[in-house]
Prior knowledge:
Blueprint (H helix, E strand, L loop, with lengths): L5 E6 L3 H12 L4 E5 L12 E2 L9 E2 H14 L3 E4 L2 E5 L5 E5 L4 E9 L3 E3 L15 E2 L2 H4 L7 E5 L3 H10 L5 E5 L9 H8 L4 E4 L2 E8 L3 E8 L5 E5 L2 E4 L3 E3 L30 E3 L11 H22 L1
Parallel strand pairs: 1-2, 1-8, 2-5, 8-19, 10-17, 11-12, 11-17, 12-13
Antiparallel strand pairs: 3-4, 6-7, 7-8, 9-18, 14-15, 15-16
Amino acid sequence: MSSYDYDMIIIGGGPAGLTAGLYAGRGRFKTLLLEKLITGGQVMTTDHVDNYPGFPEGVAGYELSQRMRDQAERFGAEIRSTEVLGLKPGNPYHTVVLEGGEEVVGRTVIIASGAQPRRVGVPGEAEYTGKGVGYCATCDGALYRDETIAVVGGGDTALQDAVFLTRFAAKVYLIHRRDQFRGARLYQEKVLANDKIDIIYDTVVQEILGDKNVSGLRLKNVKTGVESSLEVTGVFVFVGIQPITGWLEPGLLDQDEFGFIRTNEEMATNVPGIYAAGDVRAKLLRQISTAVGDGATAAFAAEKYLEEQH
């Protein structure tokens, strides 16, 4: 009996993990993909994807995710819905700890656990999360039909979702701490052309106000120091992302100051046989297309590593 359960264990079922599963299964390696929620990752919170190659008219996030899963399963990847609680590197095998204390052992591990929205970190945010504070426009936008809401941020997601939310809301205030946006020029043009969006530059949220639900925001202009209030019934926060690495023991893998896992160009971490791919990895660009590339590279590198171990 072998002392391992799988050739490759993939942690995370977003585009990076599913692509790694596709390549590993197609390579005839016994592959297990672990996802605690629903496969697709952050793509599942995206209403419409228009920058993934091969879909000139765009594609729904759900449809793209489901196609990726179907393809990975067709090539033999086993997908399980369970939470990963820990990783115990070994030589030559690595142990992944699951909920309930179950353990699975793999010859290689690919970490594709992704990232999650960063909190703005002001009073009222935690208290009113789910009661007017949200991080997913496609999940919650329809709750604010004909209401006045705010979006905080200035990157691609903030700009895209501000436009998306105008489908439902009567008015969307876009609050950005700088005097110009960081997001793609195409998204900036769409925001500026939408008469339902009012932009508040050079401003930060000081506090989220409410009773049982959000009723307003306390704002501060970073250049003048002037404080003001804004009546809204909801606020969507898009101020960046943070890696989902809390399940990793500190110091186990080399990570940057934000917690993203450092790898080389082959997606290898500092521990032999353990790789990282997608949004969880320290990298310049976090998009579906780069996650797919990471997943393919990680699986191929893991395959070469396995061949060398024989």
